Amino acid sequence: MTSTLNFNLPIDFSRLQNDRLKLVPLEDNLEEWASAYIDDADANPQVFDWLTYGPFANAAEYIAWYNATSRNNPSELLLAIILKAGTITRKGRITGEITTTEVADGTFAGLCGIVSQPPDRATVDLGQLLVSRFHRTFVGTHANALLLHHCLDSVADSGLGLRRVQWQADASNEASVNAAKRLGFRLEGVIRWQQVVPVGKRGLEGARLPRVGWDGRELGPGRHTAMLSLCWDDWVDGGRELVDRLTKK
Question: Which Gene3D superfamilies match (predicted)?
Answer without folding.
Answer: 3.40.630.30
